[in-house]
Write a structure and sequence with these properties.
It is built from 25 helices and 18 strands. The termini are far apart. By secondary structure, it is an alpha/beta fold. Strand 7 (146-153) and strand 8 form a beta hairpin.
């Protein structure tokens, strides 16, 4: 049975594949083909496309959005370019894109747009993207890429010329192949994130800071403050994209996690990403200068047979650690710019903030731009970050940005990006209403839009356009993120709600096996429920680490966590701590993680064990050369002990 749909289609083709096979032989050809298809498929997933079929030397992919199809086409070309940076055999692909009504039959698609996309692909030069003018028209102002109109092209099998446009794409900025970058950062860098609008003043401030760092050859910090959901991380990623595309800048990322801050957590993540891209000569040069001081951070820098180093004072050892970390930054950049994103510093440990102070104060021969995001609403008077920011007010190489909500104009552009085309009058009215209700908070707005889609207020109409089926005055909008999340989770059913509530207690990121051990469902059922949550844009899967999941934003996790009663939360914290204890012995979980859950359990019979793990967390921090954080854990253990004795 067949039916008609309006859709956008991509066809790709590997250039000179026959010559490649003759040159390298069958085994190498197969390995190259697998790498080629892997790169293409990595671009399809985040863009929301559906692979229709393998064409032998390319793929056919279907999209419900013209804008997302163009973003995917660009991401495909960028992925192949990244592959070529290290590959002996350089690859080149052609990409054709067309949109229109097609017939669906037995999972395949037929019709004019399918033929147009295939013929445009064949017409392409290597590394080129050709799309029909209709694709550009439907993408509208939401299109984030430069174009070059080519006029009408004669295409085989079509009765008249097809108005064609070339998409002008730039290489991906991430010279580390994106390793270590979370999806909400890498998707902005590769152009697969929905269009970014506004923030022109903030982007200009960051661009000026980068110019200063380059001119003075010294580090410069831009601290981006804002309420949850304001788009701090997205701004940092977008600024990185605008600064780095085309000039080969090195980009790395380190993030902090609420309640589970480990010594140097964001820096370890950032340094590992950089060292993973090093060759043997660079590793050897670093070890010759700094020994294995970072061996506990990065396996490649641990040298088991190195001569023992004489122990120094705690401060001396910490300074050696700082110097080693700074050397990684310098060696990674070389002659290029280096951009380091440090995310959610309101949850940072004290040791990481001390290292940040050290990096900013030292003399450097490379241009280093540090982009640090934090929730200013979460800071208190005696917070370590509060004190650090107060000190930084006197530093010339520190700039602060206070991020506010989107303006009315920016909100209209934001909504047009979500729709994939210019808004109707009803759409503009809705954008203004949402601006008032959400105070321009981008995440809250996105959640509102999804709620309106779920309730049928917004629906896809003919020609891939969005229709508004209820007046703005009658919408009955939710009053908070918590209410929006509750609506979305409620639509998924009681079992999904149970799984997500437990996952929220585990944390922003959670392990699949741990989650299964805590809920009354088997593996397959939990996986099915998580896939439903991913479809609802509540949860995401770490593509680089099977079995690891996370909430799309901290606000989603916090809303689900707060939805649980105190007694229920405490019981789940207790169960998590019990489940994680064997992993502490194996060294795969830190004592701090156990202590955090036991303290949150707040049960009197857990106090002794909470004291035990708090002391162990302090010992780990001392070993990691983070004495301030160790003192915090020891103080917490003492307070728990005194409170239990007085109870």
């Amino acid at each position: 049975m067949s039916n008609e749909v309006t859709a956008t289609f991509i066809f790709t083709d590997l250039v000179d594949s026959t010559a490649l096979a003759s040159r390298v032989g069958p085994d190498a050809t197969e390995a190259i083909r697998e790498a080629h298809f892997g790169a293409l498929r990595d671009a399809i997933g985040p863009s929301g496309g559906t692979e229709v079929k393998n064409l032998g030397d390319g793929l056919m992919v279907m999209f419900n959005s013209a804008r997302r199809a163009v973003s995917c086409a660009v991401a495909m070309q960028q992925a192949i370019e990244v592959h070529n940076r290290r590959a002996d055999e350089k690859l080149s692909i052609r990409v054709g894109v067309a949109v229109g009504e097609a017939v669906v039959e037995d999972g395949d698609y037929f019709g004019t747009p399918v033929i147009e996309a295939a013929r445009l692909c064949a017409k392409c030069d290597g590394d080129q993207i050709l799309v029909t003018a209709t694709v550009i028209a439907l993408a509208g102002s939401a299109l984030a890429h430069e174009t070059n109109p080519l006029g009408g092209l004669e295409l085989k099998g079509l009765p008249r010329p097809v108005e064609t446009v070339a998409i002008l794409w730039e290489p991906e900025a991430v010279s580390t192949d994106g390793a270590g970058l979370p999806s909400r950062v890498s998707s902005v860098l590769t152009g697969t994130e929905p269009g970014f609008f506004g923030r022109h003043d903030e982007l200009a401030v960051i661009a000026d800071a980068a110019k200063t760092a380059r001119a003075e050859q010294r580090p410069h910090l831009v601290a981006i403050a804002g309420e949850p959901g304001m788009g701090k991380t997205t701004l940092a990623a977008r600024a990185t994209h605008e600064l780095a595309v085309g000039n080969g800048a090195i980009v790395t990322f380190g993030g902090c996690v609420d309640g589970l801050a480990a010594p140097f957590e964001p820096w370890i993540e950032a340094v590992r990403t950089l060292v993973d891209a090093w060759d043997t000569a660079t590793i050897d040069a670093h070890l010759a200068a700094h020994g294995h001081v970072l061996g506990a951070w990065v396996h490649a820098l641990a040298v088991p047979d190195a001569a023992p180093q004489a122990p120094g004072t705690a401060t001396g050892d910490q300074l050696a650690l700082f110097a080693g970390a700074a050397d990684v930054l310098t060696r990674s950049a070389g002659e290029r710019d280096l951009i380091v994103i440090l995310d959610d510093l309101q949850w940072s440990d004290s040791a990481s903030l001390q290292l940040l102070r050290y990096v900013l104060a030292r003399e450097s021969e490379v241009a280093t731009l540090l982009l640090a995001t934090y929730r200013d609403s979460d800071l208190i008077a005696h917070d370590p970050l509060t004190a650090l920011l107060a000190d930084f007010r006197r530093e010339a190489n520190v700039t602060r940005i206070d991020l506010a909500g989107l303006s009315d104009t920016e909100m209209v552009d934001f909504m047009a990006s979500a729709a994939g085309h210019d808004l109707s009058d009803a759409g503009v009215e809705l954008a203004h209403t949402l601006r008032t209700e959400t105070k321009g908070n981008p995440f809250f707005t996105s959640a509102m839009v999804r709620h309106l889609v779920d309730t049928g207020t917004i629906a896809q109409g003919p020609s891939d356009t969005v229709e508004f089926r209820q007046s703005v005055a009658d919408l009955g909008l939710p009053n908070s993120i918590r209410e929006v999340v509750a609506h979305r989770v409620g639509r998924l059913g009681e079992h999904t709600s149970t799984v997500l509530n437990v996952a929220a207690v585990i944390g922003l990121n959670f392990d699949f096996d741990l989650l299964v051990s805590l809920v009354p469902f088997d593996d397959d059922d939990v996986l099915d429920l998580l896939e439903e949550a991913m479809t609802a844009a509540l949860v995401t899967e770490d593509r680089g680490r099977p079995g690891q999941f996370g909430f799309v934003h901290g606000l989603v996790r916090e809303a689900l966590y707060q939805d649980l009663g105190m007694t229920r939360r405490a019981r789940i914290h207790q169960q998590i701590a019990q489940s994680l204890e064997p992993a502490v012995v194996a060294g795969t979980v830190t004592p701090a993680a156990i202590a955090t859950h036991l303290i949150a359990a707040t049960r009197p019979n857990d106090v002794n064990k909470a004291v035990q793990y708090s002391m162990a967390a302090g010992d780990v921090a001392m070993t990691a050369l983070a004495p301030v954080d160790a003192a915090d854990w020891y103080r917490q253990a003492l307070e728990l002990h005194v409170a239990s004795r007085d109870a």
